[in-house]
Amino acid sequence: MFSIDIDKNIITDVSYENVNLLYPHERIIDKNKNVLKEKFINSHGIFFISSIIICNESGLIIDGHHRYNALKELGLSKIPVTKVNYKSKKIKTSKKNDICKKLIIKKAVSKELFKPKSTRHLILCERQKEWFPITLISTLFQVKL
Q1: pLDDT digit string (tens) for 100-123?
Q2: Overall number of domains in the chain
Q3: Nearest CA to 39 among 74, 64, 63?
Q4: CATH label of the domain that carries residue 133
Q5: Confidence class for position 44, pLDDT limits 50, 70, 90
Q6: How far apart are CA 37 and CA 28, in angstroms?
Q7: Position 5 in a domain
Q8: Residues 19, 29, 51, CA angle at the centre, nearest 5°?
Q9: What pTM value is reported for the model?
Q10: Of the four, 19, 24, 27, 112, which is 20 to 30 A from 118 by CA?
């Protein structure tokens, strides 16, 4: 099992959120989304999924664009999310941290999406003082179609 120690103030909530209140910031690769949808459909209506990581203030999707789109297309109105304090300096947008978080939020809200996989959000592990993919803080949820 792999785990990281993060600042306890980063995760603000783990819950379900209305899909219409979330803002993607990247376009997706349809093939990847369709593979997920097929996997979910073939699960006989019940499956486990990692939560979508979102900004607790803006609803920006930080991680999970393909899962979000697959679940939305399958008709789910509420999806599992992990809300985080996106303002934290312990979250960065890529190894170089070369895309400003404010720009990401602005583009998402205006529906001016970046190309797929433009960001690779990372989170600081307090114990190791190393950066890891933010998806590691997702929570597993059981979902029913």
Answers
A1: 999 999 999 999 999 999 999 999
A2: 1
A3: 74
A4: 3.90.1530.10
A5: confident
A6: 13
A7: no
A8: 40
A9: 0.94
A10: 19
